Structures are given as structure tokens and as C-alpha cells.
Amino acid sequence: MNNIIEALKHCFLFRNFSDEEIYQALTNIDYKIKSYAKDEVIAIEDDRCVNLGVVIEGSIEIQKIFASGKTLTITRLGKGQIFGEVIIFSDTNQYPATIASCESSKVMFISKEEILKFCSLNIRFLNNFIGSLSDKILLLNKKLKSLSYHTIRQKVASYLLEEYGTQNKSFITLTLSKKQLAEQLGIPRPSLSRELINLRDEGIIDFDRNIVKIIDVNVLEECLYE
After folding, report:
1. Mean pLDDT along residues 83-101
2. Helical axes 123-148 vs 152-167, angle rounded to 10°
3. CB–CB of 153/196 below 8 Å?
4. Is a pLDDT exceeding 90 seen at residue 108?
5. Number of H helices, E strands in the chain
6. Is the dihedral of CA 97, 103, 109, 115 positive or negative?
7. Mean per-residue pLDDT for 183-212?
8. C-beta atoms surrounding 122 within 10 Å
9. Which of 18, 42, 74, 160 is the most exposed place for a label (fewest CB within 10 A)?
């Protein structure tokens, strides 16, 4: 039980809940815990989604698998992160991608009915749940915005400017690896590295590992309109 409570303390749905309140919540929610081995599939694209999932241990990946066999990692989720919260309330409640375990993992599953029940019992949980849905919508908007840019430079510049605005400082910390960032932007990893080097050589940015310094934000903004 302690490891479940510890994981849920990292979960947005239980934000501002004490350990005791999380424990009490668990006594009011009917849930299941499932264990997965490394590379084991949790759900296949087009499978029916009837539960919200919370990663309790390990990490999982949301993947798009093409007919050619090529796999594109959309995102990786770690302890306390959730998936399926949007899909279970959709009329088309099917997974749009495949979900697989990156390592030995444990996932908590909570049904749609149990989510609705607990939302009616706890207003903070309801607020957190709605906030989570709102964040997903904003993230989708960001991805759509990225897709609207045609060049690699525009995509990279847009991402750096968003992080600059969010972190509100010239030295920004990249929370994604280059592989993850390239996949999120929909560009090859070598192209991402090459464009970062080009921006550095032109004196627009500088970087060291996962720290990027925005030297000239005005020129970086102009990259969006090239």
C-alpha cells in the first residue's frame, strides 16, 4: 500500500492530498493493479479503453506502430503519470496508439464508473481531473501548432520559445532527451542536433547538454516567419 500512496503523491489527480487522504480515497475506489515485464504490451491500438491508468512503478511508452514495423515513441510516462482519462469518456473509446512497458512496471487501473463516483465524493479530485483534461487539450494545441510549421528551424525555434516563456529565464532546462524531443517535434534526431548547432553557430542560442541559453530571443522569434 505504501508504494501505491507514494506513487499517487506524484499523480496530478491527487494533488494537495495528504497521505491519509490518499489512503482514504483508496478505500473508496475499486481499482486493480497489474504488473508488466519489460517490452510487454499493455494495450494495442484500437483496443477498447474502459479504465484510467496510473503508473505506480517503472515507466511505459505510448507508441505508434506502422505497417512497416517502424515504431514511433509519442511519449513516455513515469511514476504517478496517467493515461486513458480522455478516451474513457469519448464516444469512440479506443486507444489511438499502442502502450508498452519500458521496464518492469506496475499500473493501477480505475474504471470510468469509479472515477465518476469519486468525482462526486471529492471536489478536489474533480477539480484536479478537469485540470488534467485541460492540460491535455493545451498540449494537443501545442502539437498542432508545431505541425503548422514546415521547417525544422521553425519547429525547434517554436519549442525553445515556449520553454523560454514557461520557465521565464534565458537559461532553460530541457526536460526531454534529444530522442524524445525529436519524436515530439516529428523530426529526425540528427536533424534536431544539426539545427541546434546551426542556431548556436549563428549566435542565437548556446547550449551545454540539456541547458540552452537564449542569446537573442528576437532573432529566434523571427525564425518562425522565415
Report:
1. 91
2. 150
3. no
4. yes
5. 8, 11
6. negative
7. 92
8. 18
9. 18
Query: What pTM was computed for the model?
Result: 0.69
Q: Cα dist. 2→20, 22, 52, 56, 106 in Å?
A: 11, 10, 21, 11, 14
Phi, psi of 176 (to 5 degrees): -105, 150
DSSP state, residue 48: B
- In Å, how far are 29, 94, 223 from 91, measured between CA atoms? 24, 9, 40
Between CA 33 and CA 44 the distance in angstroms is 19
Q: What are the percentages of helix, strand and coil residues in the chain, rounded to 5?
A: 45, 25, 30
Q: Which residues contact 80 (CB under 8 A, 6 or more apart)?
A: 7, 8, 9, 10, 11, 12, 54, 55
Sheet holding 205-208, edge to edge: 171-173, 211-214, 205-208
**Helix crossing, 123-148 with 112-121: angle to 10°?**
120
- Give helix 178-185 / helix 152-167 axis angle, nearest 10°: 110
Q: Comparing 73 with 213, which gets the higher pLDDT?
A: 213
In tens, the pLDDT along 120-151 reads 999 999 999 999 888 888 777 766 666 678 89
> Are the CB atoms for 57 and 103 separated by under 8 Å?
no
Grid cell in block for residue 151:
521547417
Q: What pLDDT score does 162 carry?
A: 86
**Residues in a beta bridge with 101:** 60
